[in-house]
């Protein structure tokens, strides 16, 4: 969801969605917790949408946009939202509005 983060960064520099650990951190946490990593892969999946609103709604549908840390919650006025939409829409790549997910695949065994 880097496209959303980058677009908000241009508008107000604030976090508007949860931040997830990097793949290396996930693997390290598994090892620290007593798992042996048997196989692992991280891949980026990019989807395309007809509009910014459709892209943002798809994130909300999977629950990835809910900020659970109250220190990072912020209010979005209609004018700020319009700025965000313009910033994100500028990323249109001829196919549509891109939205990328980093997906981690891990097979781990508890030892």
Strand content: 25-35%
Average per-residue pLDDT, rounded, comes to 90
Quantity of strands, as a count: 2
Helical content (DSSP H or I, runs of 4+): 25-40%
Taken in chain order, the helices and strands follow as HHEHHE
Sheet bearing the most strands, described? 2 strands, antiparallel
The helix tally amounts to 4
Assembly category? single chain
Radius of gyration: 17 Å
Stretches where pLDDT is under 50 for at least 5 consecutive residues are none
- Label the overall shape: elongated
The rounded distance between the terminal residues' Cα atoms is 34 Å
| Alpha-beta classification | alpha+beta
Sequence of strands across the biggest β-sheet: 1-2
Structural overview:
The chain is of the alpha+beta class. It has helices at residues 2-11, 23-32, 52-61, 78-89; strands at residues 35-49, 97-110. The chain has a two-stranded antiparallel sheet. The longest helix has 12 residues, at 78-89. The chain is elongated and about 55 Å long. The model has no long low-confidence stretch (mean pLDDT 90).
């Amino acid at each position: 969801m880097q496209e959303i983060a980058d677009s908000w960064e241009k508008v107000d520099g604030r976090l508007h969605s949860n931040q997830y650990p990097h793949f290396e951190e996930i693997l390290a946490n598994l090892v620290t917790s007593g798992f042996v990593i048997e196989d692992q892969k991280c891949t980026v999946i990019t989807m395309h949408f007809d509009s910014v609103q459709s892209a943002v709604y798809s994130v909300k549908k999977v629950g990835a946009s809910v900020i659970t840390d109250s220190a990072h919650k912020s209010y979005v006025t209609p004018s700020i939202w319009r700025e965000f939409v313009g910033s994100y829409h500028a990323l249109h790549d001829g196919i549509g509005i891109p939205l990328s997910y980093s997906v981690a695949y891990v097979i781990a065994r508890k030892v």
